[in-house]
Amino acid sequence: MTLQHIVLFSFPRELTEDEAAQMRGMVASWPSEIGLMTKCRFGTDLTGARNRGYGYLLYTEFPDVAAMEEYRAHPVHQRFLAWLIEHDCTPLAFDYYLDTGTVLMPEKNGAATLSQTPETARR
Q1: Which domains does the chain have, with CATH numbers?
Q2: 67 neighbors 24 (Cβ within 8 angstroms)
Q3: Torsion (CA) 21, 23, 24, 29 in degrees, nearest 10
Q4: Confidence of residue 35 (pLDDT cuts 50, 70, 90)
Q5: What is residue 65's three-state secondary structure?
Q6: What pTM, to 2 d.p., does this model score?
Q7: Which pLDDT belongs to residue 50?
């Protein structure tokens, strides 16, 4: 059964641009280097007003628990965990099944709608 794995990340100080780029680069490599997931998204909070210090969010979906466990044990993911520890990150993770009890609004045609961010709109 498909499940969703969400992780929020909090750091004791704001990451530098290079550190934030490293973090994003590691996550962006997962679909090709690890595979296993059916969706992978990563972003930062827009306002910082209600996040209680959790400035980054990882959203992934896996076809089943076995795939998620294999992802967690993968050396590429383990290097990411080591990087988080090195940067004193406090993660907050939540996993749950996607079923008729949890999916309250199914996706249309299974694709995310991509919009331009203010930065890309100005280019």
Answers
A1: 3-99 (3.30.70.100)
A2: no
A3: 120
A4: very high
A5: helix
A6: 0.84
A7: 87
Distance CA 110, CA 58 (A): 19
Please name the amino acid found at residue 117.
T
What gap in Å lies between CA 66 and CA 52, rounded to an integer? 32
* Alpha-carbon gap, residue 70 to 33, rounded angstroms: 13
Average pLDDT in the chain = 89
Angle (deg, nearest 10), helices 75-86 and 65-73: 60
Quick one: the chain helix, strand, coil %, rounded to 5?
35, 25, 40
Structure-token pair, residue 61: 């979906």
What does the pLDDT look like over 67-116, one tens digit per residue?
A: 999 999 999 999 999 999 999 999 999 999 999 999 999 888 755 544 45
End-to-end CA distance of the chain: 42
DSSP class of 111 = -
